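Teaching assistant here, posting this on the class forum so everyone can see the example we discussed in section. The complex has two components, and the goal was to see what a joint structure prediction looks like when all of them are supplied at once.
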Amino acid sequence: MPIGQETLTLAATRRAPASTRRHTHPMWFLVPAFAILFVFFFLPTVFNFIYAFTDWSSFKSDIRPVGFDNFSFLLSDGTLFGALRITVIYAALVALFQNLFGFGLAVLLEKDTWLNRAARLVFLVPVLMSALAVGYVFQALLKPDGSVNDLLSALTGQQVSIAWLGSTTWTLVLAAVIHAWKWMGLSMLIYLAGLKTIPEDVTEAARIDGASGWQAFWSVRFPLLAPAVTFNVATSLLGSMNGFDIVQALTGGGPARSTEILNIFIYRTFGQGLFAQATTMSLVLFLMVALLAFPVIRILRKREEIL
Amino acid sequence: MTVQVFGSTVRSRVPAPGSRGIAARLRPFAVVVLVGLVMGMPLWLVVVTAGKSQGEALSPDLSLPSQWQLWDNLAQVWQQGEVPTAFFGSLLVVAPSVALVLTLGSMASWVLARRTSRLNAVLYALAISGIVLPPAVVTIVLLLRQLGLAGSPVGMIGVYTGIYMSTVIFFVTGFVRTVPLSLEEAARMDGAGPVRVFVSVILPLLRPVLATATILICLYVWNDVFYAFFVIGGRLDTLPLNLFQVANAGLYLNNWHLIFAYIILMSLPLLIVFAVAQRKIISGITGGAVK
């Protein structure tokens, strides 16, 4: 029985180190890291599940349980689903744009010429900048009398004065583009590194088999980028779901709260002293990320395995 | 066979080399235009506006200032935004957080990677859950108050360490698994204890992945404003928090020149580090991420 044999030998080889592991890799190495995780990460998360069901606020000193009042309040005035919808749309758009831009840049700047090297460095500058700063810069650029309209006026030959940040529909999309602009340099780097790991002869083989450059790229090289796609989609999605600075600096949640993503809502209600409501939203964000992130990562991982 | 018109270094990828050639020749121009438009315009706006007087900067545009007063503006912001205090405030929070999270994270990662029990698998899953799950910012404040750490640098360092511990453990554990056990065993034969093995065998080997983690976490923590609002809001100056203050006051008074001057001052430290060590940083980021 080959299977039994295998487990036997495996167990035999494993048993010896397993008993000594206690001395060679002691458990106390885990203690400091887990102590910090417990106090500063797990405990507040547990608190989230408790204080979301209380009337904790800055207006009174005692905290009393109120059941689902916070949820029903946030549901009844439409904030809960409004903020949820805005956050999900924002995150999806950021993931889309950031990967499109990053991938496009990686393909454009793939060859190691001096110009491309210099361009790569320039695209990394926003990654280093504070997201708050990026928000302010674009707020200035996109003013009705700002430079983007000036440029469009010069190009079209007529006065353009679009209120870029005044639309309740499109400002959110624009905010996502700007978020993607800040982080596309990082995605570009990851895609470039991915492209570099694909050996030349793979593409060569495809070309010899008669594939056009276009075909060779999309059906041979692109699928091999799967790990880079996973990393980039996952990080961009999570970064944008926890987003705050760019939108806060760009619009502060406006116009008419149409760009008020969950973290801006949490910040605003916390500032008003409505701690329990802020906690409730924080819990909602936690549950949403938990529900969305794990399947997304699993799907992406599965795609890697198939290929 | 098609003749290689543009020299043998350019491999023709499409059967029609003529059309491809034009595209290949146009590519550098496309790069220049793209960089100029997408990156040059915003960065140019920052520099020229930071060099203008208040009147000229009222509605920021791409024109050159009639008279450069960049230094005056920088000096004014330096005082008004309390840049030195904020710089050291940022440093006071960033350096210990990064050092702590990397040290404790790698310690835990080493044992998590080497032990193979079921309990260990559970612990590992718990340890990396923070990559995905958002921190509970509001209740952290409550907890810090109960611990007497609210508004203190220690509380802030603890929060950052807790938030980024998962990222470090995830990256480093994956890396430790690629390090052969035999290296450790050789040291152990010579009579080295676990601490000795970890410090003199494992840590040096972790350099590339620790570089990646350091860069990313420095970036996040140096520029963070969201968690800082909740934890230290107003009781300690950091660069991003002061930018927010300067900007809020500045927008109200239409002081765009001061906002942009502050942005320049604030971005400078990271830009200088980047300019000096760009090659290492780039290979650092990619080295640990694609593995």
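For the discussion questions: Chain A touches chain B through 95 residues (CB under 8 Å). The CA atoms of residues 169 and 191 of chain A lie 31 Å apart. Think about how each of these relates to the inputs above.
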